[in-house]
Design a protein that fits this description.
38% of the residues lie in helices and 22% in strands. With 502 residues, the chain is an alpha/beta fold. Strand 6 and strand 7 (135-143) form a beta hairpin. It starts with 6 loop residues before the first strand and ends in a 17-residue tail after the last strand. Bound molecules: nicotinamide-adenine-dinucleotide.
Length: 502
């Protein structure tokens, strides 16, 4: 990729696509509000070319030895590490998140690469000798074929890295359709995979929107689809992909609650609520968007949160000292800001109004919205019911643990949650009773490590398999059970009965 170039195109068959695109999208720098580049949008023809390149590369790559596939992952790991700052700069320029946050997402993505380096161990099957006299049985897992990944704007490096390192290490070939809002990081990752020795065509990137996605979902050579994004699109991807006979895992949106029990360390809880609510401007699927304050600590907790929010430095992501950047687009910023008015109109209290927060060093046209805290929110309000995906923290008051738990379990989403308490019994009861896929105890963003699997419950996941960890390996492979008998003097004889152990 030419890093000075502001035009981005597809990566097909180990090189940039050279055709002329009928449609291009604008890329914005959210901190200036200005167009910084353009990106080609794929039609079905470019998607077909990318899937074709992946299908052509498949026989060679799936036959590559486990050690060869692992060694490509080890090389890739070193290359990503040495390009971490460059990747982070691309992310900040197009997404807006601050530099440290962008570097952090690359680091979390690298943990999945570390995990994929262990593929020889991860693909070990089971072997049982003498299941019948002279007969052995064993299980193996094989790649599913060409697989596709469709990813959201909010983690342009990490979310693709939840998928392709494991898919490739398992012997599949891959077509990535990243978010059209921040397409550049995926292209640098494609270059680094090529430098690491991945054969041409084993990893491809097509850009664009619904047309490109629909072409992937309908393509007969795409065997499996991993999706991460909003719930309505996740549901659509799951229904359409499975209707076309594909294996699909589709991770959706979230509304993550943090319960604060009266015995909790309120300073720790306030720090956690601010970090998890406003990090990356709240544009994280594991961001805390609702604090459930259990009586009687609500007022004290809100005061502590208010004090901390006042000191947050909002500014351009590439500016030293910025703690929170802009939102990704003007439309998204305006949509998030609407919830401030609607929340107050429905009876919430404006504890902190982000529209009045100072922006240091930001251009006037940047997509700014400071951190907001809405207090006394109730589940019937729109600002509670909708996934806002911005720097808006709602505080719901609950009279006791049971009410707090009931609020969470009645919510249609089930991605992440956390409880803050010093009572181990209460924490244990919560982790047992809450209907959410990822749970933190005094940890506000309980993102599982790469060797566990990431995924929510209810409307936060369509499909059966979470991403990375053992479930990721499972998703990108098919199991086969083999029963084998080698010639032995005792073999043979006609027997029309059902095969049973002798
Ligand atoms: P999005 O659903 O708008 O887009 C995700 C992907 O789908 C993009 O590649 C986009 O081009 C494509 N897409 C958008 N509309 C489509 C349509 N109608 N048909 C087909 N494809 C379409 O999501 P986003 O705004 O990029 O990302 C934010 C969302 O992602 C939030 O809802 C957030 O909670 C969610 N998210 C979830 C997780 C998770 O692990 N559960 C992680 C990150 C983000």
């Amino acid at each position: 990729m030419e890093h000075g170039s502001s035009h981005r195109t597809h990566w097909i068959g180990g090189k940039p696509w050279t055709g002329g695109a009928a449609i291009r999208g604008d890329i914005y720098n959210p901190a200036t509000g200005q167009v910084s580049g353009s990106v080609d949008f794929a039609t079905a023809a470019e998607v077909d070319a990318a899937v074709g390149a992946a299908a052509t590369a498949l026989p060679g790559w799936r036959e590559a030895s486990l050690t060869r596939r692992a060694s490509v992952m080890f090389e890739f790991r070193e290359l990503v590490r040495s390009h971490q700052a460059e990747l982070a700069a691309l992310i900040t320029a197009e997404h807006g998140k601050v530099a440290a946050d962008a570097a952090g997402e690359v680091a979390r993505g690298l943990e999945v690469v570390d995990f994929a380096c262990g593929i020889p161990h991860l693909l070990k099957g089971a072997f049982s000798e003498n299941v019948s006299t002279g007969v052995d049985a064993y299980s193996i897992r094989q790649p599913v074929g060409v697989v596709a990944g469709i990813t959201p704007f909010n983690f342009p490096a990490m979310v693709p890295m939840w998928m392709f390192p494991i898919a490739l290490a398992c012997g599949n070939t891959f077509v990535l359709k990243p978010s059209e809002k921040d397409p550049s990081a995926s292209l640098l990752l494609a270059e680094l995979l090529a430098q690491a020795g991945l054969p041409d065509g084993a990893f491809n990137v097509v850009h664009g929107g619904k047309e490109a996605v629909d072409a992937l979902l309908a393509h007969p050579d795409v065997r499996a689809v991993s999706f991460v994004g909003s719930t309505p699109v996740a549901r659509y991807i799951y229904e359409t992909g499975t209707a076309h006979g594909k294996r699909v895992q589709a991770l959706g949106g979230a509304k993550n609650h943090m319960v604060v029990l009266p015995d909790a360390d309120l300073d720790l809880a306030a720090d956690a609520a601010v970090n998890a609510g406003f990090g990356s401007a709240g544009e994280r699927c594991m961001a805390i968007s609702v604090v459930v304050a259990v009586d009687p600590i609500g007022d004290e907790l809100v005061d502590k949160i208010r004090d901390r929010v006042a000191g947050l430095r909002v500014g351009p992501g590439d500016q030293e000292g910025s703690e929170m950047g802009p939102l990704v687009t003007r439309e998204h910023r305006d949509k998030v800001a609407e919830y401030l008015d609607s929340g107050v109109a429905e009876g919430a209290t404006m504890a902190v109004d982000g529209r009045q927060h100072p922006v240091s060093g930001g251009a006037a046209d940047g997509f700014w919205l400071g951190p907001t805290v809405l207090d006394h929110v109730t589940p019937r309000m729109r600002c509670y019911a909708d996934e806002i995906f911005g720097p808006v923290l709602a505080v719901v008051r609950a009279v006791g643990y049971a009410e707090a738990l009931a609020v969470i379990n009645a919510n249609p989403y089930g991605n992440g949650t956390a409880i803050f308490t010093n009572d181990g019994g209460a924490a244990r009861r919560f982790t047992h009773e809450v209907e959410v896929g990822m749970v933190g105890v005094n940890v506000p963003i309980p993102v599982p490590m790469a060797f566990y699997s990431f995924g929510g419950w209810k409307a936060s996941l369509f499909g059966d398999t979470h991403v990375h960890g053992a479930e990721g390996v499972h998703f990108y492979t098919r199991g086969k059970a083999v029963t084998a008998r080698w010639l032995d003097p005792r073999h043979g004889g006609v027997n029309l009965g059902f095969p049973v152990n002798q």
